[in-house]
Amino acid sequence: MLDGQLHEGQGGDTDTDPAVGGIAADRLRSIIERVERLEEERKALAGDIKDIFTEAKSAGFDVKVIRQIIRLRKLEPAEVEEQETLLDIYRRALGI
Amino acid sequence: MLDGQLHEGQGGDTDTDPAVGGIAADRLRSIIERVERLEEERKALAGDIKDIFTEAKSAGFDVKVIRQIIRLRKLEPAEVEEQETLLDIYRRALGI
Amino acid sequence: MLDGQLHEGQGGDTDTDPAVGGIAADRLRSIIERVERLEEERKALAGDIKDIFTEAKSAGFDVKVIRQIIRLRKLEPAEVEEQETLLDIYRRALGI
Amino acid sequence: MLDGQLHEGQGGDTDTDPAVGGIAADRLRSIIERVERLEEERKALAGDIKDIFTEAKSAGFDVKVIRQIIRLRKLEPAEVEEQETLLDIYRRALGI
DNA sequence: CGGCCGTCTAAGGATC
DNA sequence: GATCCTTAGACGGCCG
Known about the structure:
Four copies of one chain form a homotetramer.
Chain A: H1 3-8, H2 24-58, H3 63-74, H4 77-94
The structure holds a DNA duplex.
């Protein structure tokens, strides 16, 4: 029964304005709803991305490798070098 | 899994698609760019959300608690699923 | 109020043996408890691993790279080759 | 972040530790081997758990449902946290 | 700058 | 046997 607070507002006090916190309650509600709306949009975009990967897979691409490429493109070239260099150093330290 | 783009190509790309190393390069590029575009939009939305929280903080709200509220609102639908009591579940586990 | 079923057994019927499912209930309880015990041990090991990485970090190592090395050591050498080859192919297809 | 093992070394390894490329090779090897050992133990435990479920299945239990029970038992302690009602949380968010 | 939280990836299990 | 989904682990960003 958290639903009262969750989905209806402070049960029945909507006419005279929130009894709790005065005008602030409306402000709070607005904030929460705007954030939730934006999060939904984010979620929708995530779905779109997923669809593209599904399409890629259908076309015969290796999705994991595509992700890797996208990751590399996001990194500064210097960063990539650095990571690879460090990996080599550790490898040689281990003799592998 | 080297098949797919390496050994099959994919339907319809054999004529006009510039194949590099047996790969439908344009198709690949398109996939990657679309994903990157969507990720940018996602990032922008994250920024918008952050702005709202900054505003909330300025208005004197406790941002951490607001996050908590949003989290709870998201979780509650899931709790409905758990309405099925453990006793029932045990019974099903026991096959009776 | 799931606690009855969860932590005490089927409230009060422990003497004559479970009223639900006969002997099976005890068997079920045993299975669950053994699994839970093993999962705790797993969790403890995860903590130990985490501690080692913390130590590694303190010693100045790059934890991410160490993880990468461990991952590589786990893979068949052939697998490593394959992934790298495919990555190169995609990269060349994109001209990067 | 090339510092750390590359440019600082770490406390006490300068005298006896075989340094390869400026790296405390033995220290690194020790870290990796300990992690790998622990991961093996984890894997072994996973096998034990799997065996129990196999046994359960043989005994006629519904493995999926047993997993569900274990999952729920794990979640319940968390629910206690949520006892704090949303109203209280809202009040805190509003600072009253 | 270290710890915490949330997201994202990868592996394992269930399903068809 | 392949796909889909769920879950655990890894990663990066945010906050204190």
